[in-house]
Amino acid sequence: MDIPFVKMHGLGNNYIYLNLFEKNYDEDLFSPLAKSISNVNTGIGSDGLILIQPSEVADLRMRIFNKDGSEGQNCGNGLRCVAKYVYENNLVSSTLFTIETKAAIVSAEVFGNRNKIHKITVDMGPPLLKRSQIPMLGSPDEHVVGEKFIVNGEQLLVTALFLGNPNAVFFVDEIEEAPLYELGAIITDDKRFPNRANVEFVEVINEKEINFRVWERGSGVTEACGTGACAAVIASVLNGLVLKNEDIIVHLKGGDLTIKWADDDHVWMTGPAEVTATGIFHWEE
Questions:
Q1: pTM of the entire structure?
Q2: What is the pLDDT of residues 141-195, one digit of tens each?
Q3: Considering only CA atoms, which of 265, 237, 244 is closest in space to residue 128?
Q4: Residues with catalytic annotation?
Q5: Is the peptide bond before 135 cis (omega within 30 degrees of 0)?
Q6: Binding-site residue set
Q7: What is the model's pLDDT at position 22?
Q8: Transmembrane stretches, by residue range (predicted)?
Q9: 2-123+272-282 CATH
Q10: Residue 143 belongs to what H/E stretch?
């Protein structure tokens, strides 16, 4: 089977994108295709597969399949890439439009022209802070802010929330010393998170700037994670480390995002997206 694709990245968080406005495929194809196409040795190599589809409730729909074949709920870097693609390819008429995801309907605004979108702002909506909404085991109405979290014999402090995905945020003194590889996989599959979780490590530089690294459920270590960067800012605000309703610069491995948790409770993410390659993937099931 010959499958046309576009490979794009948001700060190094790279996915293969399929335009399903032009051609659709059988539903059972997507999970095995994600695993195959993401394989760096026998496929194209990526953090996963993203589908761009028509929607009955928004201007378009985005679906995310991680490199392990599991379906994700949302992807901040993916949203920016999708927004760039649909505007540059005339699939939407306005610079401001809505995107349906498994987690929520979000709005996106693109800056540039039909030939080149250079910046995208996405309204990620409000975070969900109750333990039952994340979800995380324990008293359902509690918020999880700086809570003792013992894992692998170590005592950490976790701040957890849901924004597009379940997120577990940990603060460290030095980002380069964060136990990303040692604990990332263990925490993401911890039974205290029934739906698993993205795991973020954060070093606060000052009240308007943080360093960030991430282990994504279903993908492992990635260069960037938009929903995780938003979660890192929310967690930093909840712990009194950065300011609410201010632009916070988040330094990810792949580059910088600007995140604001506004007074209306919505989280705004601004950053770039780039096309890496286009082509045909030759696939046999």
A1: 0.93
A2: 999 999 999 999 999 999 999 998 999 999 999 999 999 999 999 999 999 999 9
A3: 265
A4: 75, 225
A5: yes
A6: 13, 66, 76-77, 165, 198, 216-217, 226-227
A7: 83
A8: none
A9: 3.10.310.10
A10: none
SS3 49: strand
- Say if residues 200 and 228 touch (Cβ distance below 8 Å): yes
Burial class from Cβ neighbours inside 10 Å (0-12, 13-18, 19+) for residue 280 reads: exposed
CATH number of 131-265: 3.10.310.10
C-alpha 42 chain-centroid distance: 25
State whether the Cα torsion 102-106-112-115 is positive or negative: positive
> Are 283 and 37 within 8 A, CB to CB?
yes
pLDDT at 213 over 80: yes
CB 189: neighbour CB atoms within 10 A? 12
Return binding residues for substrate: 13, 66, 76-77, 165, 198, 216-217, 226-227
Closest CA to 78 of 222, 174, 239: 222
Question: Which percentage of the chain shows pLDDT scores above 70?
Answer: 100
* β-strands 255-261, 267-271 pairing: antiparallel
Tokens representing 96 are: 């401001």
What is the arithmetic mean of pLDDT over 76-97? 97
User: Taking Cα atoms as reference points, which of 156, 158, 152 lies closest to residue 137?
Assistant: 158
Structural domain boundaries in the chain: 2-123+272-282, 131-265
Of the chain, the end-to-end C-alpha distance in Å amounts to: 8
